[in-house]
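Input record (one chain):
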Amino acid sequence: MNKKQLLSECGVTYNWFSVNDEFTWIDDRPIPTDEELQNLVSFNKLRIRRDQLLKNTDWWCCSDRTPTQAQLDYRQALRDLPATADPQLDENGNLTGITWPTPPND
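The corresponding structure, as predicted from the sequence alone:
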């Protein structure tokens, strides 16, 4: 991924623009390195996917339902991922290096 792609997907707002493929930085903060941007993008992608998985299981915790311990453990493992995972991006910008928790069967 090039710097413009990384900036677009990192989940942090920076001030920059591009005209005719020329990259111009106008933010007061220093330009992040490619490694810093890769890290931001990988964690942003992790959080997006994690949030989607949590949303898919929100119904387990409705007020008229009692979730099983396995369901609670799964949701906790998803919430813990940003602190326990080391996400990376492959050459195509896909998220790798994540061991996703297995959803319970009940």
